[in-house]
Structure formats: structure tokens, C-alpha cells
């Protein structure tokens, strides 16, 4: 790969569909990709770049990014830094999920943020109750060689049976007891609780293989 080769931080979904923890026909499948040649535990420090936002709710970008930080922090897989849009570094770098960078540019980004990888992504959809939905496209890219470490694209829709089933599993994991309909309903109503559920699901895919 020469210095003119461009590295894409956004990989098309069709490249990821065959690389997940289950077949797309399985009701509880979450589509994600883990690079078999990369170790999350050896990543070092990761910078989470505040997510781009295509929804009609501008503040949701900050909320989801920070919830994602908390959920990933609990995995203890790597160190974390959040670079928000208010951060002067964000303005300097202007990193976007679908931008292309040379290896030299990635090396410069690495030195500037003192991290080995960046997590970038887009909130492709968000709608609040009564049809609470969050759709995300996320990528974890190694700044040392430009390779994809992990990626995920998923829609979490409260009207979908898959999401309903995963909410029950999430509550059992949190409470270690049988769930009830009141707890399940609260997650679908509360934006904060639903976002925390979504980012928990995101972080859980990384724990499938450290």
C-alpha cells in the first residue's frame, strides 16, 4: 500500500453482513464485524469522535456518544477519550465517518489525539416514543495501519420483536431477576434508558471475542 492509498473509515453494509455473531435470519442477531487479525485488548487507547447525526434531533448526538462512552468503559477493553464537537481538537481534525485518509494522515491524527484507534459513526435515525428507534452505523479503525478493527450497523426499533426480546435480556443482565412489563415499558418510553440499552448492546458485541 503506497502513501497515496486512501483508507475508508466507512465500510459498506454489504461487506459486513456475512461477518456477524449469527445469521441474519436469526431473530436475535445483531450484525457486526470483528477483525480476526486484531485484538481489542491490544488496541490501547481509543478516541470516540462525537457521532454524526442524520436525525431531526440535534442534541441526540451528544447523548448517544456519551452513553456509548460509559458502556464501552464498563467493558475494560481499552482506554477511552471522547472528542466532542465543542472540543478544539474536533474542529482541527474534522474527522468524519465516511472520509478517506492516507496512512500519513492517520499517523498525524494518532499523534494529535494520542490514541491508537478512532471510533467514528453516524446516527442514521432517531425517533422518540411512541415509536422509539435508534439506528447506528459505527466503525473502529486502527490508526496504525488504517485497518478496520470492528464495525456495526443496526436498527433498534421498539416495535420490532427482536428489540423487544433483547430488552428483556438486557433487563435480566442488569437486574439478575425476572423482568416485568413495567420495566420493559419504561425503557421504550424513556429516551435516556433506551439509549443506554442500545449502547449496552453495542458494547456487548465487542465482548464476543476480546
- Shape, principal axes of CA atoms: globular
Quick check: average pLDDT?
85
State the major sheet: 7 strands, mixed
Fraction of residues in helix: 25-40%
How many alpha or pi helices? 7
Low-confidence stretches: 1-19, 21-27
What fraction strand? Answer: 15-25%
| Amino- and carboxy-terminal Cα gap | 28 Å
Q: Look at the helices and sheets and give the structural class.
A: alpha/beta
Which H/E pattern describes the elements? EHEEEHEHEHEEEHHH
Total strands: 9
Query: From the alpha-carbon coordinates, what is the Rg to the nearest angstrom?
Result: 17 Å
Explain what you see:
This protein is α/β, with parallel strands linked by helices and 210 residues long. The protein contains 7 helices and 9 strands, in the order βαβββαβαβαβββααα. The strands form 2 sheets. Strands 2, 3, 4, 5, 7, 8 and 9 form a 7-stranded mixed sheet that branches. Helix 2 packs across helix 7 and helix 6 crosses helix 7 (191-206). The radius of gyration is 17 Å and the shape is globular.
Provide a quick synopsis of the model:
With 210 residues, the protein is an alpha/beta fold. It is built from 7 helices and 9 strands; from the N terminus they run E-H-E-E-E-H-E-H-E-H-E-E-E-H-H-H.
List the helices and strands and how they pair.
Blueprint: E1 7-8, H1 13-16, E2 32-34, E3 45-49, E4 52-53, H2 60-75, E5 79-83, H3 88-93, E6 100-101, H4 103-113, E7 117-127, E8 133-142, E9 148-157, H5 161-175, H6 181-189, H7 191-206
Parallel strand pairs: 3-5, 3-7, 4-7
Antiparallel strand pairs: 1-6, 2-9, 7-8, 8-9
Helix pairs in contact: 2-7, 6-7
